[in-house]
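Take a specimen:
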Amino acid sequence: MRTGIFVGSFNPFTIGHDSIVTRALPLFDRLVIGVVGDQVHKPNMPSAEERIKAIADLYRDEPRIEVKPYYGLAVDFARAENAHFIVKGVRTVKDFEYEREQADINRQLSGVETILLYSEPQFSSISSTMVRELQHFGVDVSPYLPNKTH
């Protein structure tokens, strides 16, 4: 079974994240979305359980997708899930450089390969940070959040 993982804090899970999941799914028999556990302390961050539930609800009709908490290194999570691939989304050159370095280290540590999927142009400016910032100022962020059932 070909398994990949897609990891992040997903605070919140945006339409950009959804695009990566949708585009990565045909590559795998099983895609595990790993949500950073509660050991990460960011102001006003919903619990891992709340973030997991919200994402799992989005994909409730897609049996190939699982949503789980993860703690520690992504490569350790990959090993625990018997995954040989980490899926990452890339919006900018800055993202690419960061992810390239992470991919090199992850491969050295574990042999796990990283698959980079480039953001679709209409999502290249969308980030969880941007959504949180807009939300802070009372802007309706629903256009940036997925609301469909897969």
User: Anything to note?
Assistant: The mean pLDDT is 94.
